[in-house]
Amino acid sequence: MFTGIIETLGVVRQLEKDGGNLHITIDTDLAGELKIDQSVAHNGVCLTVVSVEADHYTVTAIEETLQKTNLGDLQEGEKVNLERAMVLGSRLDGHIVQGHVDQTGTCTAVEQKDGSWIFSFEYDASTDHPTIEKGSITIDGTSLTVVDSGVNTFKVAIIPYTYDHTRFGNYTVGTVVNLEFDVIGKYVAKLIQNRC
Fold first, then answer.
1. C-alpha to C-alpha distance for 21 and 24, rounded to whole angstroms
2. DSSP H/E element including 56
3. DSSP H stretches of helix in 20-101
4. Which of 40, 119, 148, 166 could be disulfide-bonded to 155 (CB atoms 3.0-4.6 Å)?
5. Residue 92 DSSP SS3
6. Angle at 9 between CA 7 and CA 11, to 5 degrees
7. Which of 156, 196, 130, 150 is nearest to 4 (CA)?
8. Contacts of 37 (CB under 8 A, 6+ apart)
């Protein structure tokens, strides 16, 4: 489980294909605090640490993960949002995030708003994943509040800190992002769908 509060940005050191899998090696100051078998969210995707060195570690993404997320598009040198699993008994500053990406979305607009930014996103509506205004959404692992919601579109407001300390500072129109919809909203939607 995660909170959606990004701890740091890592940098992709190496990408190594192995059949349908991809071994991803990340440079980060967090490496020295990690151990094998721990879960770390990478752009919101929960992956297991398989090896650790002083300044980098490696995780493996399977073919299904590569097909359903933006991890298959990673390039060496690219920045990645990182969050370690939450610690029970500490504050839940974001919202409940599982690290199970539902689908990808695409940035459709970036608007500067007097010191902050409004980012617009679009996603495949056939998946029936709902957003609601003032509801939670996770974009590349970042816990955010929806400020405008459509059938398959939504907007989020980004403060300077988030812009500077996550991948949002690199997003442009056309950027593909990982989306994890609010788990409570997904259960409610499924219950209503099953009653119809």
1. 10
2. strand 56-61
3. 63-68
4. 148
5. coil
6. 145
7. 156
8. 48, 49
pTM here is 0.89
**Tell me: the pLDDT tens digits for 53-90?**
999 999 999 999 999 999 999 999 999 999 999 887 77
* Chain segment 83-113, per-residue pLDDT in tens: 999 887 776 677 778 889 999 999 999 999 9
Q: Using one digit for the tens of pLDDT, what is the confidence trace for 114-151? A: 999 999 999 998 887 888 899 899 999 999 999 999 98
**Cβ atoms within 10 Å of 22's Cβ, excluding its own:** 19
Instruction: Compute the distance between CA of residue 190 and CA of residue 196 in angstroms, rounded to an integer.
Output: 10
Name the one residue in this structure whose structure tokens are 């007097």. 114
